[in-house]
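Quick illustration, no need to memorize.
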Amino acid sequence: MTLEEVYTNAFSARLTNWYETGNSPYLQDTDTDFIEMEEESGDEGDWTFPNSGGSGTINSVKLRLEAKKSKVNSGSTTVYVWDGSAWKSLGSLPLTTSYAWYELDVTSILNSWAKINGAKVYVHYTYYLSTVNYVRRLTRKVDYIPAAVTETITAQSFPMLYVSKPVKAQELISKVEGATITKVANDFPEELIKSGKAAELKSKFAT
């Protein structure tokens, strides 16, 4: 299982009804960049994320926002996410008067790697009694099982040695003569070193 969480890295300014403070995209990992709204109902967006480096089986996808409001029981902020063809409402955040993280499960909406990489977010404010709503951080979190990497070498028997591996990679050293190499599920660098009538194959791949 692998967990990948990334902050938004781009703001399109398609919707700009909120007040923006600091530097775009405003919802990165700082205390000084944020958006706020108090005067009218309005929308702000869209935020996007870096392409995921993941592949394989998706366990869960979540959006996480840090937000607050200035008054209890008044005003609301609703979150919307793009699923590749339409905007989906994720409901209103139950904001308090102190900054807190809110985690929204979008697994059923962003249910493919294409939808995860194409995800966009905007927020809607509903005005009530001069309440100020704030949002200052936004992340996308994906829990997944990486795709398997398989190396199949046929047509010849030969000795193989797995050497000590770094944290996320391992090296396979095989002495081969007249073999056919078939790669399945992933590509990885390889090096063939000639040695007399034999060749030495070195392959490095992520686990």
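The chain has one helix and 17 strands.
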